Amino acid sequence: MKGIMKKHKVGVIGAGAIAQACHIPGYLADGNCELSAVADPEEKCLAMLREKGWKFGHEYRDYKEMLKKEKLDVVSICTPNTLHTEMALACIEAGTDILLEKPIATSMKDAESIRAAAKKKGTRLMVGFSHRFNELNLSAKKAIDAGGIGKPYMIRVRFAHTGPWPGWAKTDWFYNPKIAGGGALMDMAVHAFDIAQWFIGPVSAVSCKTATLRKNIEVDDNVVAVMEFGDKCMGYVECGWTSPSGFTGIEIMGDNGVIYSDYAKSKAIMVCGTSTPDGKMEMQNSVLKDGIEKAQWKREMEYFTKHLDETGDFSPDIDAGVDTLRIVLSAYESSRTGRRIEIKK
Question: Can you give the pLDDT at residue 1?
Fold first, then answer.
């Protein structure tokens, strides 16, 4: 007879947009997760949870009080970027599993402190790189790993929308450099750099330009970056908060073809064949995935909650978070200095 699975006592720090859209619904969908406690200093965010009918065992204004009074198994950290480090370290000390939103920190010193503490304590920590769970990208990854387009030599990632505030975020903290630590590069290109490394491998150098083109804010609203993956592959990232339309997704070009992961059309296509200088083309199209059955946040949370009952590390783990933050900060350095920055671990 199969035993009864353990109920996981869940805590959530930060009750804003990503908690409401991803984390809390994900825990509610899993029968072995119990919403034990939530902490947020903003009463309006806690009120939103009540309005949605999401009932936590206890509500707190101070996450430290929550961790002191509650015996939690897992905590989601869904707060502004510059708060991640102190909260992650506190959760590690409390002995919980952690789902930490990206970026994991805003400095390499802080990121390394989280990694060191987690490894010393044996804490399992997953980073919220949700694009890895997009069904289009999963099908593209499978085709690339199977050699469908040959060896990749170029990747393009474009993630763009009209910005987190108003319309998405519950406050305008994304535009405050002291709280966010950066703009579109920190918020969106962090996903682009992670997914590029997931598809291709480690980024060895980056050249970048950030700008504030349209919004009256103190952080960057657009970024373009060139990535190098050794000397046989390169790529570029375009991310921004000023795009009402246009292609959003990923292109991976290999020696024998190309894969398009088109978010707007919800379709992943592989095109193989030849194109010659005289304009002749012989192409074969293969649809890898047509339509999305489950949104990437839902898939991310299904993976995370399932693995709470298993042993072993989560993926993406703390190392992925550290590696990607290193590229983000190197990109900011490149934009400030006008120099190409080599990525050194």
Answer: 36
Instruction: Write the pLDDT tens digit of every residue in 56-77.
Output: 999 999 999 999 999 999 999 9
End-to-end alpha-carbon separation of the chain, Å? 49
Cβ neighbours for 185, distance < 8 A, ≥ 6 positions apart: 208, 210, 220, 223, 225, 239, 328, 331, 332, 335
Q: What are phi and psi of 158, to 5 degrees?
A: -125, 110
DSSP annotation of 233 reads -
Residue 102 and residue 186: Cα distance in Å, rounded? 9
As given in the structure block, the two tokens for residue 304 are: 């995370």
The residue range of the domain holding 216 is 133-295+326-342
Residue 25 burial by CB count (10 A; 0-12/13-18/19+): exposed, middle or buried?
Answer: middle
Flag the least confident range among 3-17, 60-74, 112-126, 313-327: 3-17
DSSP bridge pairs for 342: 205
- Six-digit token pair at 130? 């949700």
Chain centre to alpha carbon of residue 199: 14
162 and 72, same structural domain?
no
pLDDT, tens digit, 9 for 90 and up, residues 155-175 = 999 999 999 999 889 999 999
The answer to the question of residue 2 being in a domain is: no
C-alpha–C-alpha distance, residues 156 and 188, integer Å: 14
Q: Which residues pair with 209 in a beta bridge?
A: 224
Angle between helices 190-199 and 318-337 (to 10 degrees): 120
Spell out the residues 6+ positions from residue 109 whose beta carbon is closer than 8 angstroms to its own.
none
Counted domains in the chain: 2
Same domain flag for 86 and 145: no
CATH number at residue 249: 3.30.360.10
170 and 283, same domain (yes or no): yes
